[in-house]
Amino acid sequence: MGVRDEGSIKLSAGAKAAIKSCGGTMIDSLGFRDAYALIGRKNGTALAEAWQKRSSGFAVAVTRRPAIKADTSAVPICDAKVAAPPMRGTFPQNQLQLDAGCRYALWETPGALGCLQGRWVVHIGTSNTILWWIQFANFLHPGAIRPIRDDVSLGQFRLADLVIDQGVITYQKAEMPEDCLPKVKHDSEVCKAAKAALLSAPSYSPTAVRLTLIIEHYWPNTGSDLDLLQAASSGAWGGKMAVNAHVVTHYVYCMVMKDRSCTMAAYKQDVTQEENLGIFRAEMEPVADKLQAHCGPEAAFKDCTVATATVLAWQDPRYNDFQDVIRDVMASRGSRDLRLLDLALMGQSMPGEAIRGHGSPVNFLWAVQILLNGMCPLDLAASGNFAKFEGPTCHATDVANDPNFDNCPEYRDQACGPDKTHHWCMDWECAADVPCKMVATGGSIVQANLTGACFRNLSVSFEEQTASSDACFRVWCLEAAEVPITLVALLPALFLLAWMWQWPQRLRRCCKAKQEPKEEPVEEVLEQPVEEEASDSKFASVTEATLNKSATAPVDVSPRSKPDMDRAVTVHLGGGVMDEVVPDEQAADAGEIHAVMAEPSAAKPAPKTPPKAGDKFPLGLARFIAAVHVVLFHLYAEGVTPDVYLFGWGFTWVPWFFMLSGFVLGNGHECRPNKDGILQYTERRLVTVYPLYASTLLPALVIAKGLGVQKKAVVLAAQTWLLQAWNPEWPEHALGAHCWFLSAMLMHFLLFKPLTWCFDRLALRGAVLTVCAVFALPWLAVIIPEALQARLWYADHHWGETDSTIDLVVIFVKFNPICYVHIFALGMLMAKIRKLVDGNVGGLWCRVVLESLLPASIVGLLLVFMVKDLRPWGYQITTQVGLLLPLQATVILGLAGLPSLPLPYLAQKASHLDFLEPYAFSYYLFQGLAYSLWPRGGYLGGSTVLFLLFLFGISVISVHMIQKPAQSLWTKYPNSRRGVPVLLTLLLVGLNYIPAAGPGAFTGLEAEVRHDAEMVDVRLPLTDPADDLGGVLINPSLFIHEGEVKIAVRRHHLESWEHIGEHNGSVVHVIEQIWHSRILLGSVSFDAGRWAEWPKTGVAPFAASEVSAWTGLRSPSGQAWRQLCVRETFLPENNTLLRKVTTGPEDPKLLYSDGLAVLFNSIPPRGRDGCAPAETVSQMYLAHLGAGASPAVETTGQRLGCGFRDQDEKNWIPFAYQGKLHLIYTPGPHKVVAVDSEGCRDLYETAFEPLKRLQERHPELKARGSGQAVLVNGTHTPNLPYPHYLALLHLAKPSTGEYKHFAYRFSAEPPFAMLQISSELPLQTAAPARGGAVFAFGSGLLLQDETVVISYGAGDLEPRALVMNLQRLDDMFGC
User: Fold this and answer.
1) Angle between helices 943-958 and 482-513 (to 10 degrees)
2) CA distances from residue 1355 to 112, 468, 1080 in whole angstroms, order as listed
C-alpha cells in the first residue's frame, strides 16, 4: 500500500490501525504531504517499509517474495496398470508433472531388481528402442551396456540379450544371425531359426532379470517374433515375460520422408497419406490382436505394452498421423495387461530432451519409471519423490554443446577416431555410452503464482495470403506483356535489317546506270586513302567511284599496305549479285571498309575461284554467338533459365573478346602500321564503344533509383571514365556491373602502341615462345592454390562483399585489367604469327590443318561445355583468366585462315552472317537494361527465348538509332567529344543525390496506418547510405539508454545464382542462395515529449536516422564476423547441390546487461578447421557494445550455450531479473534459463494451458519468441494490475512461411509462468521479394513511460513499428 498526496490528515485512526496490522511501524510519523509505502502481511510483520519527507522524493518499498514451492510428495500416485497410463504434462525442474494431477512413483536400482526377479523383459523396435533398452540395462546394472563395446550400435546386430542375476551379469550377447538383415518385412526361415536358437539360449533363474532387444523395422516381422517368443517362453520362463513393441519410425522414414535408408520400395510409392496410414494399420492390427490374445495373467506374456514414437511429435503433422493410428488401434484392445505407453505425449512434455530425433537418457529413464510403475508393486518403490539425474550426458543439451564428444571419450575414441571401428559416431549414442543415474530424493517444484492468469482458449486462423497482383519488385510486372514487348522491339529491328539489306541493291542499280564501258585497273582507285573519320558522303563517293570501274572478269583485290593509309576499300567481284556494303565495327578494327559486289557478265562466266582469306575476317557470327552465350550465363546464374549445363560456361567468352580485339588490332598494325600517338589512338578507338556505353548509364541509374538502390558517387564517376575495374571495391557496385570489361579495353588501347614496339622485333620463333608462355600463365591460378592446399580459395567471396582480403583478391583477379593484358597481347601475337607464317607454308597438309582448326576447336569447347568430367580444374576462377585460351585461340585462327590461302570452308559459310557483327557489342551491353525492363521476374523457362529475341531487337535498334549517329557526331566534332565524360560525370553524380524509391514502392504499405486514436503503425525513418546493392533494412530493435534512442537493425539482401561446381569430387549443378546480412547500429537523441505523443500523432520522435555497419564485431578467434559456415544439401536424384550462404549476423536485440549489449543469431563463423556439417545452423550470441556504443569499436560475440549446437537456435527473449540476464528459450513450454560467466543454466519450465492445447491441436505450428521482455509495474494495466513482464511471441507455420504475432505476459517472479496472451497484433504484412506468403516478423519491444513500441520487419522489406499506449495494449488482454 502507499500514501501519496496528503495522508497525514485524511487517513483516519482506523485506517492507520489497519496499516499497523499489516506490519507498518512508520505510519504515525507521517507529516503533511509526506510519502509512504508498505509491503506487509496481514496480521504479520512488514516485508518492506519506506517513509519520505515532503519534497524528498518517492517512498519506495521493495522486497523479494520467496518462491512458492509445491511438495510433490502430497500428490497421489498414478495408476499405471490401466489401458493408457497418463503421459501428458510438463517438465519443470526435470520432473514429469502430469496434467492428470497424479505422479508416478520413483524407482531406484534395488527396488527395480527386487521387482523384476525371475522376469524376462523384451523390447522390439529400432534406434530409439535400442536407447531405451540401454537405459533400462544400465539402470539395473550401471555400465552394463555401452554401444560400441558391446556391439549394440545400430546396424551391427539384430538381437541382444542380457541376464543380470543378483547384481552380476551372467549372460550377454549381441548377434547378427545369418540372413538376418533387419530392414526387411518378412524374415527368412534361416533367420527365424537362428533367432529362435538365440532366444532359447539363456537358462532360467528365479533370481535373474533377463533383458532382450530385437531390432525390427516393420510390424509383420514383429508378429513372427511374438511367435518365437511364445515358443521360447513355454518352459521355465512361461508367464514371466513382458513385451514392449515400439514400431513406427521406419514407416515414417519410408512413407513420409521417402528416406534413402528405406529399403522397402513399396512403401516409398507416391500415394496419399490415407493410403499409407491404411497400410500401416493393416500391418499393425494383426500384431495387436496377437498381443491381446497372448497377454494376461495366465497367458505366455504378462505386462505387454505398445509405445508410440518418442520424439516424432512437433515436426510434421503427417508424422503424428501414425501415432494416432497406434492410439486408435490400441483404444479397442487396451487393458491392464496390454497398455499403451504414449511416449509421444511424454516427448511433448519435454521437447528439449530430443537429440536429433532420439530421446535423451533423461527421456528414456522416465519411460523406464513409467514401465516399472505398471509392472511392480508400489511397496518396492523408492521413498523419494523428486528425480535427480547424475551424469555428464544425461540431458540433450549435454551432448549438443559437446561437439568433440569430450563427455564420452571412450565412445569418441572407438567410434569417431581416425581408426574407426564402427560405421559412424552419433551424439545420441554418445549420450547412451555414459551411464546416467537417476536418484529419488526429497524435493519440491517451484510453484507458479497464477494470480490474474487468463486461460481462455487460444485460436488462430492461418489463411495463406500471397503477394497481391499489384505487388511488383521490378520496373513493371505483367507476364502477359512478354510477347507484345518482344514484338515491339523485334519488328522495328527486322525492318531496319531488311532496309539495310536492300540498300546495297539500290546503290548497285544507281551505279549501274552511270557505268561507262571502259576497263581500268580497280587497284588504282583502291589506292586512294580514306580518312579514319570520313563522313558518310565521302564514303559514298569513294564507293561510287570504285563501282564505276567495272570489270569483265572476276577479280579478287586485296588491300595495299601503305604506311600513311588508315583505311582502304576492298572490293570482291564474283559471279553473283551484290550482297552488302558494310562500314562495320570489325572493319574499323582492321582499318578497312569492305564492299562486296557481284556483276553478272555478258560474256561466258569464268569458273569460280575460292576467295583468298586476306584480312577480312568472318567473325560476325562467332562474336554474336559468344555474346548470346554470355547473356545466357548471366541468366543461368540468376537461376531464371532451364538447368542447362552448357549455359554455365558463358562467362568464358569475355577473355576471348579481349583476345579477339588484340588479334584484329594487331592484324591491322601488321598490314598498315598506324602513326598516331598513344592518346590519339586510344581516343579514336573509344569512338566505337564509348557512345553506346554512355547511353546506358542514365537509364541504368534511373532504374536503380526506382528500385530503391542508392549508388556511390565515386563509383559513378569512376565508371564514367571507364575506371570501375581498377579499385576492387567498385566493379561489383557499379551500374551495369557486366560492363567492367570496358576498363580493360581502355587499358588495352593505351598499351597497344607500346606492345607493338615490343612485338615488332620478334621473329617467328620468339613470337611462338611468347605465345606458349602466355598459354601457361593462367595455370599459376591452379598451381599456387594447389601448393597452398587452398583449391577453392575463391569460394569465400560473394558478390558485393569487400570486407576481407579474400574478397579483394578475388575481385582483383576477376576484374582488374592487369589480369587480362596477357590475353590481349596473345591476340596481337597470333596476328603477327599469322603474317610471319603466311607464304612460308602451303600444300595440301596446310590446307587440311586450316580446315580442321575451326571444327576441332568447336568440338573441343563443346566437350568442355557439355561433358561434366572434362571441366578444367578450378574452372570458376582459372577459366576467367584464360585457361581455355588454346581452344578459343584456335577458333579465331580457324575463322581467319592465312592471307594467301583460300578461306576455310566453315569460315566461308560463317561469312554470310557477318551482318550480325555490329550487334554483338550492343547485345552484351544492353542485357542488364533489357532484363530490368522485362515484365517478368523469377524463372523464365520457355520465355528465355522471348527475352533473347527482345534483347536482339533492342540491340539492333540501339546500333542504328544511337551508336551510328553518335559515332558520326563524335567523328565530326573531335574536340567537343572530350567534354562528354565530364558532363556525364556531373550529371550522374548530381542525379545520384535524388533519393532512391523507398520500400513502400514495393510493399504497397502506407507510411502510416492509423488503427484508432491510440494505436498507429508507421514506417521507421531509418536510412543506410552505405548500401548500393539494393539491400533493405528489416527487423529493427530500439532501446533508450543515456538520453539517446539506440537503434539496431538488420540489412538484408537475398541473392540466388546457379553455377557448375563440385561435390565430393564430382561435377554437380549448384544452386547457391546467398543471404547478405549485416547488423547496423545508430543512435538519435531522445525526446520524451514527442515520444509520449507518438501514438496520437503518428510522427516518429526522431528524424531520419542514418545507421552504419557494425564493423567492430569480432568472432571468438578475433576475426571480423564474416566467412560463416555454409549449409550444403546434396540431392543425388538430380545431381544438385543446394548451398545456403549467410554473410553475417542477423536479427539484433538491444538490451542492458552490464552495459548496452546486442543479442543476435548467426551461422557460426568458420573455424581454423572448417565447420562440422551438423553445426552449420544458427546459434545465439551476445556482444557488449561498450561506452558510446560505436559500431567501429571492437567487441567479441560469444555463443550462448543454452541450446543445441546441431539445431537452429534463434528467437530467444532476453530480460533482466535482479540485475542478471535471463532468457526465455521457448514460449511453449515457457522455458527460462539464466546466463552467467559459466554459461547457461536451465531454471524453470512451465506450460500455459491454452497455448499447449493449441499446439496439440495443430502440431505443425511452432511457438517462438520475439523481441525483448520488459517489466511493467501494473499501474496502468487493469487486466493484470500486478507487476509482470511483457513480451512477444509468434506462431509460425513453417510449411507456408506465415506468422501470427501476439503479446503475452508472464509473472515477475520465478518460475516466470505465462499468465495471459493478447489478441493478435495487427502488424502490417508484405510478401518478400523472393515470393511466398505475406508476413511480418516482430523483432523488438520497448516500453517508455506509457508508450509501447513494437518494432518489426514487414515481409523482409521494410522496418516498421506498431505504437500504442500501454492501456490500449491492455485492452487486447481482455479475458
Assistant:
1) 40
2) 57, 13, 19
> In degrees to the nearest 10, what's the CA dihedral of 809, 811, 814, 817?
-90
1028/1030 Cα distance (integer angstroms) = 6
Check if the beta carbon of residue 1351 is closer than 8 Å to that of residue 1361. Answer: yes
Give the whole-angstrom CA distance, residue 1146 versus residue 1067. Answer: 32
Band of residue 1330 on the pLDDT scale cut at 50, 70, 90? low
CA–CA gap between residue 699 and residue 114 (Å, rounded): 87
Considering only CA atoms, which of 834, 858, 899 is closest in space to residue 662?
834
Q: Rounded to whole angstroms, how far apart are CA atoms 319 and 357? A: 12
CB 599 within 8 A of CB 585: no
Q: In the Cβ-directed half-sphere of 1104, how many Cα atoms lie within 13 Å?
A: 5
In 959-1086, where does DSSP find H-type helix?
964-972, 980-992, 1000-1003
| Burial class for 114, CB neighbours closer than 10 Å (0-12, 13-18, 19+) | middle
Look at residues 664, 654, 687, 665 and name the one whose alpha carbon lies nearest to residue 751: 665
Task: Give pLDDT, residue 555.
Answer: 35
pLDDT single digits (tens) 94-131: 999 999 999 999 999 999 999 999 999 999 999 999 99
Q: How many residues does the chain have?
A: 1375
What are the percentages of helix, strand and coil residues in the chain, rounded to 5? 40, 20, 40
Closest CA to 1097 of 1000, 999, 1018: 1018
- What is the distance, to the nearest Å, from the Cα of residue 1093 to the centroid of all Cα atoms in its chain? 41
Residues 795, 800, 806: CA angle, nearest 5 degrees? 40
Check: CB of residue 1145 under 8 Å from CB of residue 1125: no
Dihedral in degrees, nearest 10, Cα atoms 840, 843, 846, 848: 170
- In this structure, the strands spanning 1066-1085 and 1108-1109 are antiparallel
Return d(Cα 112, Cα 109) in angstroms, integer: 5
Count other Cβ atoms within 10 Å, centred on residue 1175. 17
Q: What is the DSSP string of 833-851?
A: HHHHHTTT--HHHHHHHHH
- 796-819 pLDDT, tens digit each: 787 888 878 888 988 998 899 998
